[in-house]
Amino acid sequence: MFASLVPENSEEELYELAGKNKHVAGNVVSSLFHLRDQSCFVFPDLSVRTEGRWRFKMSMYEIVE
């Protein structure tokens, strides 16, 4: 799962692939974790560095051969 920061009323992703991201702190990628009775994606250190109204857009990818 990949988390992208987007403005509250937009789909435009604010991230930089090269270098340090100035808008988001923490790891924006998570693998699937299997807990007792459920499975989930955990982002324990994900936070926003830039003041404003934002939301995280979550994108799930499946890697197949």
What does this protein look like?
- The protein is mainly β.
- It has one domain (2-59).
- The chain is built from no helices and six strands.
- The chain has strands spanning 2-7, 24-25, 32-34, 39-41, 47-48, 54-59.
- A two-stranded antiparallel ribbon has the order 1-6. A two-stranded antiparallel ribbon has the order 2-5.
- Strand 3 and strand 4 form a beta hairpin.
- The radius of gyration is 13 Å and the shape is globular.
- The model has no long low-confidence stretch (mean pLDDT 86).
Number of domains: 1
Regarding quaternary structure, how should these chains be classified?
single chain
Structural class: mainly beta
Query: How many strand units?
Result: 6
User: How much helicity do the residues have?
Assistant: under 10%
Would you tell me the overall average pLDDT? 86
Residue share in β-strands: 25-35%
Low-pLDDT runs of 5+ residues are: none
* Rg from alpha-carbon coordinates: 13 Å
**Biggest sheet strand line-up:** 1-6
Order of helices and strands: EEEEEE
Q: Biggest β-sheet, characterized? A: 2 strands, antiparallel
Count the helices. How many?
A: 0
From the spread of the alpha carbons, the general shape counts as globular
Distance between the termini: 18 Å
